[in-house]
Design brief:
two-stranded antiparallel sheet; 261 residues; L,D-transpeptidase catalytic domain-like; globular; 6 helices; 11-stranded mixed sheet
């Protein structure tokens, strides 16, 4: 089967099916910086211009080669997952092993929507930490559930309530949207159940990497596609999932992360 190649993620300024309506502040800042530099170049020498550029533009060298490799282009079946652009990465956002104090057993997934973190509990008082984005639905559930199953490149269908409230946006997808790089659920979706019933709470990938680490307009808990692929490969059906309340936010975590993880 021939791989589907995509050279980049969709531009933040293009309309999004489910999520943010505007690009991130950082993206807007980059555009403003480019305009300032263009004007500055008209009246500056080459050396002066480079000095001004160094002062205005963000320092992208702060992302290590290891982090860049972690989020590089990857092949996933017949789909080529694009690399995450440097401007959406940081050493804080990369997945990494951190100290984490919890009574939950290894293998448990702990979601902290208010800190925009997800922890996969490991042995020895540690956890794999992932950065996430949180949509409105991400705050609508708390407590304990079970990860019933995972779907690779899942399809997505808007609810009847979504279609009723915003028909101009969602009615065209009433029959469903097949899985792929443009699907709001991204590369994987983890489906959470409680007492045998679907909670409609999802942990999933995203075609909008600039949202990670931020609050989004819609959706549940989303991750970089590279991260949700990694998480899905580490968990088993039936895994315990704990979603923290605002009052519980930050419990168990520490500020220090292992930079070499």
């Amino acid at each position: 089967m021939q791989a589907r190649h995509v050279s980049r993620y969709r531009d933040p300024q293009e309309p999004e099916i489910l999520y943010m309506k505007t690009p991130t502040k950082r993206f807007r800042t980059l555009s403003a910086c480019a305009a300032v530099l263009f004007v500055a170049a008209c009246g500056a020498s080459g050396t002066d211009f480079l000095n001004q550029a160094a002062e205005i533009l963000p320092n992208r060298s702060s992302v290590s080669a290891e982090t860049r490799a972690m989020y590089d282009t990857m092949q996933d079946g017949d789909i080529e997952v694009p690399a995450i652009p440097d401007e959406y990465l940081s050493e804080d956002k990369k997945r990494q092993i951190v100290d984490y104090r919890t009574d939950q057993p290894p293998g448990t997934i702990i979601v902290d929507p208010y800190a925009r973190r997800l922890y996969h509990v490991k042995d020895g008082g540690t956890a794999m930490r992932y950065a996430v984005a949180v949509g409105a639905a991400g705050y609508g559930f708390s407590g304990t559930a079970r990860m019933a199953y995972v779907r690779d490149w899942p399809g997505w269908t808007p609810t009847q309530n979504m279609i009723r409230q915003e028909p101009e946006k969602f009615e065209q997808y009433a029959a469903g949207l097949e899985g792929g790089l443009d699907n709001p659920l991204g590369a994987r979706a983890l489906y959470l159940y409680r007492n045998g019933k679907d909670t409609f709470y999802r942990i999933h990938g995203t075609p909008s990497p600039w949202t990670i680490g931020n609050q989004a307009s819609s959706g549940c808990i989303r991750m970089f596609n590279q991260d949700v692929i990694h998480l899905a490969s580490q968990v088993r059906n039936g895994a315990k999932v704990v979603v923290l309340t605002e009052q519980q936010s930050g419990q168990g975590s520490t500020e220090e992360a292992d930079p070499g993880a």
